[in-house]
Amino acid sequence: MMKKFTKPEKGWMYYDWANSAYSIIITTAVFPIFYKSAATNAGISNADSTAYLGYTISIFTFILAMLGPILGTIADYQGYKKKFFTFFFALGISATALLAFVPSDNWLLLLVCYTFAALGSTGANVFYDAFLVDITSEKRMNRISARGYGLGYIGSTIPFLISIAIIVLAQQEILPITATIASKIAFIITALWWGIFAIPMFIHVKQMHYIEREPKIIVSSFKRLGTTFKEIKKYKALFIFLIAYFFYIDGVGTIISMSTSYGTDLGIGATDLLIVLFATQVVAAPFAMFYGRLAERFTGKIMLYVGIFIYIIVCIYAFFLDSVLDFWILAMLVATSQGGIQALSRSYFAKLVPKKNANEFFGFYNIFGKFAAIMGPLLMGVMTQVTGNSGAGVLSLVVLFVIGIVVLYFVPEPSKTTKLELDDSIDSSV
What we know:
Keywords: Membrane, Transmembrane, Transmembrane helix, Transport
CATH superfamily: MFS general substrate transporter like domains
Domain Major facilitator superfamily (MFS) profile: 237-430
InterPro entries: Atg22-like, ATG22/LtaA_families, MFS_dom, MFS_trans_sf
Order of helices and strands: HHHHHHHHHHHHHHHHHH
Membrane topology: Multi-pass membrane protein
Protein name: MFS transporter
Radius of gyration: 21 Å
Number of domains: 1
Shape: globular
Oligomer: single chain
Number of strands: 0
């Protein structure tokens, strides 16, 4: 199946395969359970520890939201995109590996290391996403973006399955190690998987579209950043899409990052949670690719509607969860759409932006996404603490999806004319 793709396309897609180990093991599965256990042992209530995790996610997303547009603007100059990508990639791997050496009873230090790991992972993804314009044509973007997410889900199941096996065998005392040590081994596996399978990205993916270097790059970058902000407001499709994206991606990210913590609050055991999450990855892989295929037939916008609507159902259903079976049903619903909605958002935006300024515009894409990611976990954390019910926190996310789908309705389809106008405007301003 991969013979259909060029080496740059394959190298770019395999980074999704590499980084997905972090997404499932650190963001969604093993680390949240590990952290919740450490917090519980320290006398922190379930509601409070869930809220603290939500606040932590808000903090690191705020930091990256502030840095994204600035670094993205600088990265549009020749040779800088790969350098910034490499820096955040190295930060993410190092901090992920460091989690294995933090004392298991120090929940606060775990959150600090998690913050740096998340900064590295999400920071690298800003520039990774922007590389989409360098490795394929506009016509193939939906398929390539969706295939990347699909490969990510498939690839994540391997280190995840290995990690689950080690943890379960440790819990059953078949392996002569504690469950704590087993979880720390999972962190090391994540860092190794991420690093090894990122190699094709470094070898085959290059910055093809860029702005020639000029004196006083930082000063010039800030000037271009101001110009870009003005241009975003001038172009209706781009600006309205970012507003819609701001709301609906907030709900998506919050559900992904807080799902395991929510399941723990419901009393679902660690083993059951890991099995459910593994099944979610398996189901999500073909659905992410399926979304890419359907987008070519029905347009990306229609498929975004479908994904958002399914997430609204997820939030409502989550409020009534009271069993492992309910959690399974919820997880499968999420699996059908989480990859598709993220992949099509990425390719939809890539079709709107001028290629030479891709990092700069993806910086704004990042700031809208990351500022949104502050609001969702914060909203869920506050509602959970106020009501003492994690389900109420998830239900509160419905408002984000509703606003997102309403605003998306007013976004016109990406058009060649809009894109050319935007290219001409940006070129004349630098």
